[in-house]
Design brief:
Elements lengths: L1 H9 L5 E7 L4 H13 L2 H8 L7 H10 L3 E14 L2 H10 L4 H6 L2 H14 L4 E2 L2 E14 L1
Antiparallel strand pairs: 1-4, 2-4, 3-4
Length: 144
């Protein structure tokens, strides 16, 4: 809620907010979280899992309204998340996350292990060289 208050604070008086929140991990994200827990650290996996909002659309609506947004709308969407070849993507993805330093500290052999883990766990979602996995998101909008 702290972040929503600050978002509202910096908007113009006639401004609006639009945000997209993952509502739960896709098979890719679950596999990556498990691979990170196994090969990097449990703490890093917990940090990674914090990016997902397990709450319902009604709860997100309430947070926006309590942060003084009005005309709040939240829509849940189901989409297919298409990812490129995992051999290249997984480590680039991890390097862009808060756990990047933890991943960098493990040896290069260990850094490769989550890739194999993700590939095996998501085999059913293979789409050419990459993946096509289901993902649910909440798209929320509100006015100042």
């Amino acid at each position: 809620m702290w972040a929503l208050h600050h978002m509202r604070r910096v908007l113009r008086p006639t401004g609006g907010l639009a945000l997209c929140v993952f509502t739960g991990p896709s098979p890719y994200f679950m596999a990556l979280r498990d691979g990170v827990a196994r090969y990097v650290s449990a703490e890093s996996a917990i940090t990674f899992a914090a990016a997902f909002w397990p709450g319902a659309a009604e709860e997100l609506t309430g947070l926006l309204k309590r942060s003084a947004f009005h005309d709040v709308l939240v829509h849940q969407l189901r989409l297919t998340l298409r990812l490129p070849a995992l051999d290249e993507f997984v480590l680039r993805h991890l390097s862009a996350l808060p756990m990047a330093e933890s991943v960098a500290r493990v040896g290069s052999e260990v850094r490769a292990a989550p890739i194999g883990h993700v590939k095996e766990a998501t085999r059913a979602y293979a789409d050419g060289d990459g993946l096509a996995v289901p993902q649910k998101i909440n798209v929320a909008t509100g006015q100042v």
